[in-house]
Amino acid sequence: MDIKELKRQLEGIIGSSLSLLEMDQEIWNSLANGNSLNQPSSGMARLHDRPRWLWKTDSSKVYVFEAETPLTEREIRLIDLLLSAAREKSNHHPFPSKRDEESRCIELGKWLQEQIKSGNIQSTVPDDMAIKPKLAENLFLFLLGCEDRPGQEVQYSKLNKLLRSYFGGEVVLVPMRESWLVLVREALLLDVQDESNEGIETERDMLGALCQGLYELIANEWGGGGFRLTVGDKLINQERLVPTTIALQETLLLGRIFQVSEHIYLPWDLELERLVYHIPDDRRLQFIEESGVDSHLLEDEETLITLENFFQLDCNVSETAKRLYIHRNTLLYRLDKFKQETGLDVRSFQDAVLVKLRILLYKVTKRL
């Protein structure tokens, strides 16, 4: 039923005017929870002894009717019953049950996987999908991979409760194949940043810190490893939901290939790896053959660990030696030995780039 027509009918029944108000959902919840006689599920609350009736919710907002003149208890209950019936008829369920919320998220997950499988990258979420209003705000997307936990199922209700507690508000938790897509409103993350990460300078630093805390929380809750986590830049247009999800899935894949010992993968730290991954196979093999790095060198674990740490620390000899718990001269000996065997001095920028690319190609192809 049209909301204006509904308002007109209600006013005709009680012989008094009603106001239609918009409220923040959290404020409404606090009002409803504070009313001992009318819980949120009843769709009614009182403010200064004036009754308000819930009509519908939309994203983080609620729409309520308020009486402009005093009403009798009989009139109040009559309006409550009439609005409840109207909501049922119009499918405006003000507070979906937990099972309803899970079903809506499952529906979105199935739709996303269908679009990805069929290559419909530019598809937008259908208007008739109940979850769509929650996608209207600016969102940040996290993707939690669980493919390394066979037989250890993560329950929706438990994970959703943990995420709500961590982010301090409602999130959209979408089950995917061997992973969970988590959509978090920008406003929630800004609140988290203000409260807990005042020293963080950039948005990406904040996201990295949030991933670290979230991974530790999840790993502790379910015990052990097997989880992998990534996050993307802010999603402003929901038309980008499908390609953004694909990009997150690829980031998890790149992390598993290139950062085997890590569990948190940030896409802005894997840009070179992404480029190498998309090089055609024949060009990869050609570069490997021409790189001048013999096969046995990258098979040697000590050499590979030394080079990777050296590059991670911006080719700083002293810092690399500290991380590897070896004397500075020992590190210099290893680098000189590598130079003698390959003709490449990783302390020079050009040679360091060539060796870095060779290591990445080794990981993606496993060909030496």
From TrEMBL:
Pfam families: HTH_30 (PF13556)
SUPFAM superfamilies, per database record: Homeodomain-like
PucR C-terminal helix-turn-helix domain mapped to chain residues: 304-358
Name recorded for this polypeptide: Transcriptional regulator
